Amino acid sequence: MRLFILVxxxxxxxxxxxxxxxxxxxxxxDDDEGSDVHTRPRGAFRPKKVSPEHSRxxxxxxxxxxxxxxxxxxxxxxxxxxxxxxDKTNMNIYESDRNKVKYDEYxxxxxxxxxxxxxxxxxxxxxxGEEICTGASMYSKEDSSLLSLTIHSKSxxxxxxxxxxxxxxxxxxxxxxxxxxxxxxxxxxxxxxxxSGRSSxxxxx
Length: 205
What we know:
3-stranded mixed β-sheet
């Protein structure tokens, strides 16, 4: 009788000493000692770096979409991003300088989103339908500027690109063209408007 009682006890002790799922604790010994898994709240902002050959543009990954489904559960307030005089109370602004190119990145604080982008009274972009802007990056050198906007909607997210030259803002139709212009801005002493790519004019400044 005593033998039947000792058998399962000895078996349990052997499994524990072998580290078997931390003695039914849901994981192994290595997980407890060396775990380096970091979690973040659902919907938290996480920039995604896209850098095809000498280019640096920050976008939101699709899993971080803060479209209108998220806006319904967490009401957000629209704000206007004025590139000439941004409101620092409702927005995080990051500035840097590299190869004589000035970088300005704008991300609205929690509870806010950008509904339109202007500069010195000129409207560059305005939300249409259910669009919201969750980030902007501007690159400037001398009298030329490039601007990329991260736009979210129910269908997902996209990037809209713009170019300022000759005191006018133009829409850059393709990301490949935008990256080529940015690369040329970095490499050249004076950024010219002759870089390849389709462009269509917007309102003049």
